[in-house]
Amino acid sequence: MGWIILIGILVIVVLWYVLTYNNFVNLRNRAENGWAQIDVQLKRRYDLIPNLVNTVKGYAAHEKEIFEKLADLRARAMGAQSVKDVGETNNQITEALKTVFAIAENYPDLKANQNFLSLQEELTNTENKIAFARQFYNDVVMQYNAAQQRIPASIVANMMGLTQKEYYPVDEGERGPVNVQF
């Protein structure tokens, strides 16, 4: 009778280990998929930036500084390795793009240019997709990190050598209150 109880406990422990291990694999893969989705949208954004800059340059050639800054940020973002670096450089790109669109406000012919309008719309769509992908990634990272910290699953996480994943950082400017003026 004692052997049956011991075998039963052993089967339960093995099943728990397998289920916990598979849960971590699933969460890790979902986090990696979330990051890949962000990467796809960022690549799309990087491809749109030179077209936008070239279109705006034709109208505002003397605004050279912002175009150089945007090109530098794009190169830095494409070479960034960590989640933190990718997030921070892309937040800076967002700010630079806002400046480019503000510059466009000074050039009525540019604002009416169909190519510019098309690029502006594509960038807006891409920004929305990046925001959605970032939210998905951060949600999965939260689940992944929380699962690693829970007892007794933390034992399996330590056996697998898992480490906490970084969240995609939010632009500091987005944390502040929104100023609405009428």
From TrEMBL:
<keyword id="KW-0472">Membrane</keyword>
<dbReference type="InterPro" id="IPR023353">
    <property type="entry name" value="LemA-like_dom_sf"/>
</dbReference>
<keyword id="KW-1133">Transmembrane helix</keyword>
<dbReference type="GO" id="GO:0016020">
    <property type="term" value="C:membrane"/>
</dbReference>
<comment type="similarity">
    <text>Belongs to the LemA family.</text>
</comment>
<protein>
    <submittedName>
        <fullName>LemA family protein</fullName>
    </submittedName>
</protein>
<dbReference type="InterPro" id="IPR007156">
    <property type="entry name" value="MamQ_LemA"/>
</dbReference>
<keyword id="KW-0812">Transmembrane</keyword>
<dbReference type="Pfam" id="PF04011">
    <property type="entry name" value="LemA"/>
</dbReference>
